[in-house]
């Protein structure tokens, strides 16, 4: 009986190819199948770009498995497409091949791998699953801003930014530091809220942090009418 391969979730960092762990590098070298999120329009994600820097698929001993994930809220389409995607990975695992799924940031933090893992556990519970931590974007931003996120007894909140202004106000009010993820879609509202709370000078914004396309702003007033990338976050540090 063929031994079932292991599914690895590899965090490869927020964009800088050097922000990858030694363990993730080793597994990229050793694993015969590298799975990655594939964009429909052909452009490469950071995870794909980083993985390609550390493997040589042309040598013939490595398969690069691009996986397209559905961008919809329709539950029937989501279930069907996710099951199809997981079955593509299962085909390799059932042949005894290990599969390394590369993901930006950390595999257990707002990652595509989380759903991959859950569906795989439901459909094929016999598959061994191992995750390797990676550097998350908010940690890259803290380094870029040279800003301690938390010290001593300070409390930190990591909040997906939404249009619920009062919930965003409460998040700021109840934490010493708040990281707003995916903030671009509500940036004018958040900036207005910071002005109301006299905290606009305590905020900084980064988009595609640590990557070659990185942009940072320490005066967020400049962004009240800006249209920024989906991969944008804001750090608000009150002290």
TrEMBL record:
InterPro entries in the record: 4pyrrol_Mease, 4pyrrol_Methylase_sf, 4pyrrole_Mease_sub1, 4pyrrole_Mease_sub2, CobI/CbiL, CobI/CbiL/CobIJ_dom
Pfam families reported for this sequence: TP_methylase
Pathway membership, UniProt: Cofactor biosynthesis; adenosylcobalamin biosynthesis
GO MF term (any one): precorrin-2 C20-methyltransferase activity
SUPFAM superfamilies per the UniProt record, alphabetical: Tetrapyrrole methylase
Annotated family: Belongs to the precorrin methyltransferase family.
Identification of the protein by name: Precorrin-2 C(20)-methyltransferase
Protein source organism: Brevibacillus nitrificans
UniProt gene name: cobI
């Amino acid at each position: 009986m063929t031994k079932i391969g292991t599914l690895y979730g590899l965090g490869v960092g927020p964009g800088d190819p050097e922000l990858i762990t030694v363990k993730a590098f080793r597994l990229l070298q050793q694993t015969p199948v590298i799975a990655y999120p594939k964009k429909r329009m052909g452009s490469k994600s950071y995870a794909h770009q980083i993985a390609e820097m550390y493997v040589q698929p042309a040598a013939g001993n490595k398969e690069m498995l691009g996986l397209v994930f559905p961008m919809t809220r329709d539950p029937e389409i989501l279930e069907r497409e996710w099951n199809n995607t997981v079955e593509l990975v299962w085909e390799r695992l059932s042949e005894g091949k290990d599969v390394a799924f590369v993901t930006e940031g950390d595999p257990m933090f707002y990652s595509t791998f989380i759903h991959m893992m859950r569906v795989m556990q439901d459909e094929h519970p016999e598959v061994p699953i191992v995750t390797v931590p990676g550097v998350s974007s908010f940690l890259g931003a803290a380094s870029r801003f040279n800003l301690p996120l938390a010290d001593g007894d300070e409390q930190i909140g990591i909040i997906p930014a939404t249009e619920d202004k009062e919930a965003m106000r409460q998040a700021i009010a109840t934490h010493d530091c708040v990281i707003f993820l995916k903030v671009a879609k509500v940036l004018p509202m958040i900036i207005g809220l910071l002005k109301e709370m006299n905290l606009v000078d305590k905020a900084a914004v980064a988009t595609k942090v640590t990557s070659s396309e990185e942009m940072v702003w320490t005066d967020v007033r400049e962004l009240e009418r800006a249209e920024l990338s989906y991969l944008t976050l804001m750090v608000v540090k009150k002290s």
